[in-house]
From TrEMBL:
Protein name: Uncharacterized protein
A GO term from the CC aspect: nucleus
Domain DRBM residues, every copy: 810-873
Transmembrane segments: none
Pfam family, one: Ribonuclease_3
Single Gene Ontology MF annotation: RNA binding
PAZ domain segment(s): 303-426
Every RNase III domain range: 468-594, 635-784
Superkingdom per UniProt: Eukaryota
Cofactor section: Mg(2+); Mn(2+)
Gene Ontology BP annotations: siRNA processing
Amino acid sequence: MTEVKAPPLVHDDVDKHGEAPLDSIPIVERPAIPEYALVGRMHIERVVETEANLPLRNGVVRNDKIEAKSFGKAPVPYQSATQKVLIRKDETISPSTASGVEKQIISANGVSYYQVAFPDVLRPLSIGGDSNNMYATEYALHAYSVSYSILKEEQSPICNMPTTQFVLVNHLPLDEEVITQFLVRLNLPHQVCLAARLSPCGVVYLTSEQVKTAKLFNGHLFDFICGRDTRNKGEGEENRIKGFLILPLKDEVRLGRSEMELGRHIDWDVVLNFVRFNFNSKKRMSTMDSNSGPSLKLNMEAFDVKTLSTCGNEWLTLKSGVYREEDLLDAFVTFGPWGSSCFITGIARGLCALSPMEGDKHDICYRDYWLKRFNVELQYVSQPLLVGCSFSRTGNFLQRPSEEAIWCSKMLKRVLLPPEVCLLIVGLKGTLWRGAFKLPSVLHGLENALLSAQLRDLVGVKVPVSKMQEALTSGAYNVYHSYERLELVGDSYLSLLGATVLYLENTASSKDDLASSLHSLVENKLLFRCAEASGIAAYVFNELFQIKRWIPPGLRFEKGRTMQRVIPEGQRISWRTLADVVEAIIGACVMYGRSEDAWKAVSWFGIPIKHPQNIACSHVFKSGVRKNQIFRRQMAHLEKHLQYKFKNHYLLNPALSCCSEEEDDIFQLNRLAFLGDCILSHHVAKHLLITHQAVGVGTINEIKQAVINKENLACAAIRNKLHGFIIGIDASQREAILAYATAVESECLRTGAAPAYGLLGLLPPKGLGDLVPGIAAAIYLDCGLDSDLVWKVIRPLLEPLPEPGTFSMHPIRELTEFCRARLLSLDIQWGVQNGMYEVNVIVNRERIARAEHEDKRFARKYAAVQALDVLQSSENKSWLK
């Protein structure tokens, strides 16, 4: 394979601005994530990338080579991949010395495998391991009961059936906030939606023998309900990952906080019966059918014929023996050669094997059906049929079901079975199954909540666990929350923080230079490298919860290949997802944490941004300050209008010189407007997300753009009479401003609302759209960088803020949505001719609108408005058909 030089990142899609230098990423001190915090044999890697053969520090990696690599069944094979080699501190290695070092393959499209962490509080202690003290030792375990409440019921009979309650016991107390606020929404089959909660029940004392039995019970129960191989049940392997246990409670118990009361309510009979049962169903069935010949007849050699002849009508003969009718109610049985399962809900006394099958057009009876379809000859044709209720095995009940999901729309299926084709599973009742098959999803949700609390404590912030968990959950996880909303706030906060630092440090940089530097400072690829270095990938919830990869509590019986399939090998996470999670965690700290928590998160991730308070801002306008042009009376009126009193009047000079033609005024105004735009973007997004909780992120972005675009900000300045405070303009400029103000006021009177994207055919005077951002930035610098105070002053200037149902879309976006809804092809072409931008709108290969203007944005907007008028008035024309 041809070797090529590795790129500076593990991904191929390097943007045009390049990468921030790796030396700019500081190595910050943070609490180390212990190796045992990960599942199985995987370890955390705190890594950043360097060039080959350079000194390495703090466990970093270097690029070796690019290799072609394909994972799974990707529709397009990956072009290349970079090997990441974990090495020790202060060590330099070459590709030849990399053998024997743990490697991780990063795919070229930015998707890679990362390890999965597990909460420390649920890890096992050495309990029940000393057989000599098995009966002499008691263990105090903290208990938490699992309860359910129905959120949605669609006339499903499963809601009215009794279920076994369970209690979770753990050697350490769980996080109090997690238990208090814990709620997992379960979307069960058959259109039932439940809410699972945990309640503390005090401490329960178990002996070593009881602990050992409980481990066996958990291993058998979860292997069985998860549909895993149960052929080699014996001395199980100790679970080194999960130390908590699940125990059943007696029917209809009400738990108190008394330890003795809870100990009496644990149903040890169910535990012992379940542990003693032979789970090798294939071996059991083959033994029963070994003498039945080719036609799966019931082998009666194991039963007493005299006893059978003396049985009354209350006895029924099953494939596994003879049982009383009352013993079969709610019993769990398997039937048929395919091993289907159900639990018995009743006995159909009016039906037997000679009765015609329900819904069969040929009037075939049950005996003939079983003989013809499965070659099973029924011997006890006069026995009444059993009424069974089938159900699915456990699955991922955490995910949000789609409307097209078949499993969510089906109701419980009622089956009628001849008793002698049924194999009774002794020790397993329907109540136990109905309670247990929900537990994997509940326990996985609890593990995620505790893992989020562990990361919160590691970062050292005071954020609600539910919001930290939301920040760690991607949309691919398909639950009812994800990080998109928090990521929007975190992104705008980082932009504001970076813009503040750049503005204060680089007093000679222009607006374009500041924007370029800000992009390099907070770009996604730099955040991705910070995420990798911090080990945050182990805490991200990105892939759907899969039962086959979930490790249950209790002893583990699967060995060899089966065990390898159960142990998760990590999850696939893209570099963009990791960058978004970093922003989402910072956003959670901004929205729900303390004032200092956001900066704590920024520092913990090692994002190379200085704290703005550590930068002296007294020199911002020290150099080149001209004579103060703001008269005292004018300043007093402006302060009264803004409801804010300035400490430094010089800060307002650039903002109020927004229409000046002098080069220095334009330079200072652009810098100030750059900072003000970041302030408005952050606080408008934060306000909209708090106000409209049920609105999607896409709509929030559209509303935000309708607020902070330059045309709307110019109209806001006109509505609030701020144009009267502009300084440094001549008579012609003042006349243009007054003309625009008159047009805006006329439009407001005509439509009843201010135009969100300006007036059609009339651009705002140059610099007028920067007046409000400039004033916001001046207040921000004057009040000591308190952006919350700035928002209190500026928000009244932007009122009324648009609502989700009333905001105006940008004409280009409106045109795009119009064509997409009607399946029309859209092409917007532009060019420059004689210093004018010419824009043509082509729909279905026909030009329908054309506009010219010296400003490209205005030309595009005007052409889109013309196209919308044509389309809306001509929907019935032939070219639209």
